[in-house]
Amino acid sequence: GVGDDANPCSRTAPCKTLAGAISKTATGGEINVLDPGGFGAVTITKSITIDGGGVIGSILSSGTNGIIVNAPTGLVTIRNFSINGTGTTLGTNGIRVIAVKKLNVENCTLSNFSANGIDVNTTAAADVTVSNVTIHNTNNGVSFVGPSGSTGSVGFIALNGCHIQGITTTGINIGSGTATISNSVISGCSAGVKSNTGATAHLSGNIVTNNATAFQGPGTITSAKNNSVTGNAAQGAVPTVVQQQ
After folding, report:
1. Quick one: DSSP state of residue 22?
2. 228 exposed, middle or buried (CB, 10 Å; 0-12, 13-18, 19+)?
3. Separation of alpha carbons 33 and 104, rounded Å
4. How many angstroms separate the most distant Cα atoms in the chain?
5. Could you tell me which residues are beta bridge partners of residue 120?
6. Distance between CA atoms of residues 156 and 149, nearest Å
7. What stretch of H or E contains 18?
8. Is the Cα dihedral 135, 136, 137, 140 positive or negative?
């Protein structure tokens, strides 16, 4: 809060914004937050960890994307942040991923976006993990479009322990690639989980409730037969049951 982007971003002379800090952080380095505040939208172009843990690290991104990730060979972690698109004009996407090798999103809250909480749309294989993340009041909660192709060239996303609720269109929309969704709550969406042509969604240990439609195809949806699917206006697509091992 008392930082200045002209500073070297040391503990005793901190920067003020994430955009100011990232240019002074080595590839593979880490940006930490010293005190509560809003630290501005940022574009990530290299391997880095951004961690708001211990205080309230936040990004207010009215009318724009909160975080853009465009790091084709990057290993990126975004942890312990509130990303809020509220304002006269809602933010576009909470986190927009154009290119990345591996992305971890952990312990974050994303809310009030006109498009997606997390938007992954890559032309090269991306490995994305979303853990303990809450998304609400967006058009789509998570939209994942990885490259199509044979095993090894497609994109993969894993969601675990997430709460996706109050979504206008689709809680989790898998446009292509493969998604594993586990131990998560998907509620209050027009469609809970949608798997499009050529995409695959694997479900285990989730609660899918209070949606207009629980599941939509025409892509593949599988269930480990341990999901709670109740209170939806319509079931929609019926997942294929797979054997637990």
Report:
1. H
2. exposed
3. 18
4. 58
5. 97, 144
6. 12
7. helix 18-22
8. positive
- Rounded to whole angstroms, how far apart are CA atoms 243 and 73? 36
pLDDT band per the 50, 70, 90 thresholds, residue 137: very high
Contact 44, 75 (CB under 8 A): no
Cis peptide before 8 (omega within 30 of 0): no
If DSSP codes are grouped into helix, strand and coil, which group holds residue 21? helix
The helix, strand and coil proportions of the chain, stated in percent and rounded to the nearest 5, come to 0, 55, 40
Cβ neighbors of 23 (< 8 A, separation 6 or more) are none
Q: State the Cα–Cα distance between residues 20 and 8, nearest whole angstrom.
A: 9
Question: How many residues are given for the chain?
Answer: 245
Q: CA 53 to CA 93: how far, in whole Å?
A: 22
Q: Which residue is associated with the tokens 């695959």?
A: 200
- Residues 143-198 have pLDDT tens digits of 998 776 544 445 789 999 999 999 999 999 999 889 999 999 999 999 999 999 98
CA distance to 16, 78, 143, 225, per residue, from 185 (Å): 36, 21, 16, 16
**Complete DSSP assignment for 106-157:** ES-EEEEEEEEEEEEE-SS--EEEEES-EEEEEEEEEEEEPPPSSTTTS-EE
The answer to whether 162 touches 130, Cβ cutoff 8 Å, is yes
Q: Which two tokens stand for residue 191?
A: 């469609």
